[in-house]
């Protein structure tokens, strides 16, 4: 049984390790072959970019060697896939190698797409790559006051990021003694400040307590860098001195180039996690079009489910579990307070009042992530 995993992020790494442990005997006997193809020999802790942008982490803390995170028996290659031939059960890599499979898992992740809004890439700061997070950090350091606008596009990676950066910026400016010189304004595309209703109900009183203003039904249309205004499809215009954006995301370009899915999001069965129309192809992590949070915990819980199912297929010929939509997200409510949201397809989130204890648990998880990537947590 040849198992091919494409993508070495959170989802692909956890799944590969999960399968290597579950199928250790079959690997040893040569009955199973697990291959992981990635675009990089480094693994990034992506939630750390939020902290990098406000000077609370450094770039070196974000990375580990990918090979060091993998169980023995996994065949790991830095050789990204360029062509998917799903009907022929094979892929072609950048090096020109053709790799066949019996089971394929696509876990290629997502990318920010500020280019979709005229002027956004040129005039806004963001934190979804190391380079952009460092640029934002330097811009914040030199900022001495004015109107800060956080403009949100959807869909985007990490559902709580817009709220987290908003509250973290409040405390950042407070620590710099600039709160009396700064106003913070938050925009969101739908009729509340977050897509999850209970999270929005929690966030509004927090914003009002801190003097953070907000505008809903604000779908970004364009950014005018000369006039320093961001305009919405609904006709409103918001001036800014510093524009921070959580841009809309898309799936990875390789999927678009292969004509798979829409905007790189692959049509995925919400409980079985297979690509629609292909029983032997699975999709996990940000790459799915399942309408749930694109978060590390989503990838983790999907990988756990799929790992158990693939092992069952190898041993019994059929899967044994369904993914229930489980997600767990920390929500930083400043520099030293946090809460969390836990939910699934049936149960909505219910965030509690932020505490220092939850914040420190989040800080601890920043270190424990590497154990999580091994699938040991």
Tell me the name of the CATH class of the largest domain: Alpha Beta
CATH homology-level superfamily of the largest domain: FAD/NAD(P)-binding domain
Q: What is the domain total for the residues?
A: 2
CATH architecture of the largest domain: 3-Layer(bba) Sandwich
Radius of gyration: 21 Å
Helix/strand structural class: alpha/beta
Q: Strands of the biggest beta sheet: in what spatial order?
A: 5-2-1-9-19
Biggest pleated sheet: 5 strands, parallel
% residues in beta strands? 15-25%
CATH topology of the largest domain: FAD/NAD(P)-binding domain
Poorly predicted ranges:
none
Q: Tell how many strands the DSSP assignment holds.
A: 21
Spatial shape: globular
Overall mean pLDDT stands at 96
Helical residue percent?
25-40%
Discrete helix count: 10
Head-to-tail CA distance between termini? 27 Å
